[in-house]
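Structure tokens please, single chain.
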Amino acid sequence: MSATQHRTVASAAATRVILHVDMDAFYASVEELDFPEYRGRPLIVGADPKQGRGRGVVSTCNYAARKFGVRSAMPISRAWRLCPHGVFVAHRFERYAELSRRIMGVLRQYSPLVEQVSIDEAFLDCTGEERLFGTPEQLARRIKIAIRESTGLTASVGVAPNKYIAKVASDVNKPDGLAICETGREKEFLAPLPVERLWGAGGKTAARLHSLGYARIGDIQQAERATLLAQLGAAGDFFWELANGIDERPVQTGWRRKSISEETTFETDLGDADALEKTLFSIADSLARRMRSEEVRGRTVQLKLRLQDFETFTRNRTLESATDDTFTIYQAALELFRHADRKQKRVRLIGIGMANLLHPGDAEVAQLDLFAHRPAETEKRKQREVLLDRLKKRFGDTVTRGSLLEP
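Here you go.
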């Protein structure tokens, strides 16, 4: 790119108004919305009531729990030690997906350019919308109010000339926050922030940056680009651009989930094959229900196993055609499980994932499956699945399959 072309791109990027909308502790906030008795108490989402509080991983927690040191991705057992008086609840993915769809619908009322990046966050390109919605600050406040009126939940919003800074800004004043970085003040906005705020600067990378003398983003701004390139390779060049507020990526519509999974961590390492296979069916049942709720089907079934010594491995099988059927998913996962070499070790965690997802409107070239169920059987089973989904949605966990009941 020539110098003239670079100036043209930079000038165009500088005129953009990009918003990053991030829901506050989304799963936990939904639980507080539906169960007001949880409000004001430390709330941890991710526990499996069937397995107790000793195993599993924290998906998210509310801000009251974070005061005790509880964090996402932390083992439930550690969260329990840090906050034994907290409320521990299981996921309700269908409910989260329902509210996510409503939130994204609100955002699309304010811009046709909405890039959903996860179930609870999205970028909007609102460039040139001042006549419709007022200043960027007024627009951001309108969106926050609209989300709250539609869902009862709060969102934090960052406004900036590009996606990277907008995402950083949305995290500055959480929860229920609003932060704006004006065009021309990008470096000033970023300079005091720790290098951990750079995209891609995880634990090991951040430690490496600290060892090189870079503690704040401003330190990287002061460094020569060539020096960072020599020290960190391509990552150094990438960090130099981010630190100096350069991010020319457009907001892209059409976010698509690439995979979906569920897993269970046992309270006590489990060696009984029958019990493991029953758990596998329960996981397949829950996962398939989520897939039907989100209107996705998958072709690749992935089995995940973590053994008693923490050895973890996965096995995959690609089906003849995409499915959201409980029994099809279970049978594929069961076959993978029975052929997996567990070395006679007990199992700490078992899970199923689905990849190669198809979304509504996707075309599929289906191959002939000689072992497929006859159409009449398939249709009857689908009708039963849909009925069970409706009952579960209405009555919750009081409705379950007879095969999953304890003898």
